[in-house]
């Protein structure tokens, strides 16, 4: 996750290490990094996946309001990793970001646990048979939301930074690939454990015990991570690659009146010194950005990065502009994720969740079907579907094909969700459940699984410029974060102009909401196809053809 250039091995105070100490890193560090990942992931999955149910049952929050709160929390935990990545790359380093974020997360979960444990911090329970419940006080809400906010910030700070510090421990790409495979396995396993074991304890044993268990595993993970400090390879912050993008914007504005030359030697081709033998002209696309790399006579000996950028920096910025339409279609595609994951919980609370006389599926555990189906679907796609594609077409599937498949999955998932909700409402009407809030609709909970299985998302990595790929995962997280905010806005608009989403979904038209999102996904799919066609067009554009071709390999 370093900002590029040569690796600098330092101790915690930033001093150069002797040669013998530079052998730190390698697989000896994996148990410590995996321990931190497992602890933080189990804790996050345990408190977050049951947050909607906790707010409804313990704090008497209206069901749709609870889902909206969860979406805002999820959006924040998706957007903030970008901030953590920039802080790690530019100032603090990955190690400091991980332990600081873990402490913040632990403090947040402690506050949530206290709201469940101390009577003054949560409202009185509802009276039996009453349709109205005591409203939490401002102090109670303040403590609850403060705990949620701190826990969310902590999750955001550790989510991708742990992956970055792990990748920094290896010198070759093969070891890094193996690391990321084990990282993904550890992450998914931990999230499943949190969403099953801890969520079950919270609903069937005690909210207090479940939340303090989250605190305990998070603390253990942090202790394990800190125990491996002397074995880690500490890479000194080199500056965020996103800072170079800001350089391009500023330099373009400052030098907007500098005439553009048709000679390659009049453009700056090296980032860390005076010009060397030029490679090629900047590409003709987004030609106005070429001003940032245009050299003036006085810049031969001294380079100000805010006034002069290399041709490569300019081309990297152009690559991001080319992929921006695809990213915008990705935001719309990802709006199905919060809709499916949160509204399915509300459906689950109304149906028969028994798997036997003594086993009841917690509503917060439904996320497990998304996690497991994602792992299974990706395996089937990579091992069977795409090899079959290659065998039939004699060409490997491109990343844009993968993204398009994600669009189709999401659209189908929304359509299936609408059909399932229609069946649920029909059963509720048939058995006269509509007039009895809290009654169970005689529909088995596993009817809700297909919509979760089909709601998959496939995004972008290979499309990012090479210097930005270390932060590409965080950028994708930003796309998901904006999608959560967008879905929250759309749901709020639906509540204002329709009666589809009342507090009791048995009296609403949730199926119409799913159908609306299915239509949105269909329109977005056509928009994606248009963007994909335009993106491919740039790959054969004139100008710096090699640069453009390289940036649009897909």
Automatic annotation (TrEMBL):
Membrane topology, record value: Multi-pass membrane protein
Annotated keywords: Membrane, Transmembrane, Transmembrane helix
Annotated GO CC locations: membrane
Primary location class: membrane
InterPro entries: MFS_trans_sf (IPR036259), POT_fam (IPR000109)
Annotated TM spans: 26-48, 68-88, 95-118, 143-167, 179-201, 207-226, 323-346, 366-388, 400-420, 440-461, 473-491, 511-530
Compartmental location: Membrane
One Pfam short name: PTR2
Keyword Zinc: no
Family indicated by similarity: Belongs to the major facilitator superfamily. Proton-dependent oligopeptide transporter (POT/PTR) (TC 2.A.17) family.
Protein name, UniProt field: Major facilitator superfamily (MFS) profile domain-containing protein
Taxonomic lineage from the root: Eukaryota, Viridiplantae, Streptophyta, Embryophyta, Tracheophyta
